[in-house]
Amino acid sequence: MLKGVCVITAAGLVPGRSHVDVAKAAVEAEAEMLQFRDKESDTRALYDTALEIRRITRGTRTLFIVNDRVDIALAVGADGVHVGDRDLPVEVARRLMGPDAVIGASAATAEEAVLAARAGASYLGVGPMFRTASKADAGEPVGPGRIAEVKAVVGIPVLGIGGIDLTNAQAVMAAGADGVAVISAAAGAADMVAAVRHLRRIASGGGAVQ
Ligand code: TZP
Ligand code: MG
Description:
37% of the residues lie in helices and 17% in strands. It has nine helices and eight strands.
């Protein structure tokens, strides 16, 4: 069962910090999942970085997921891919990547969640929970209440995403989430390893430490 913290990479949230730097910190903090998300780079650069992240994550307890790109995930032997409604359909990602791959899907509503689960998703990212500066087209926040609505209709793990940090992750977990997915709360933290460890404590029921 997938649960815990998914660290999503971003470059430059702290000057000089790369996708690989974020991946290394996620592994050191034993994040349950690391998603490589790069909307800027060309295919060759994506491949090169994904290959390095595969090397960093291999043999660790951190699952390696590639955002958007089934081809890159397959090319480097990632554990899975995360797709949204502008990417390949969940059933196609599942067919291409096989029965053992981790296929994540984005869902904003209970209806979308049911469709993604039926199509073969392994887990769902539901959000945005709160206002986020990390995704321009994320839409209006749906709030932690949406987690409970989704959990009522699907049997696969549900991660809250969007604007989640150390101050509000507990509210997402309390609504029934199996975990949280974060960009800025990890990739933008002064001490990434400490931030991810703290989020992991919250996500595993340890509660917020203020
Ligand atoms: N999908 C929905 S909200 C979001 C994504 C990728 C951005 C999450 O970033 P942050 O910084 O954790 O709000
Ligand atoms: Mg996408």
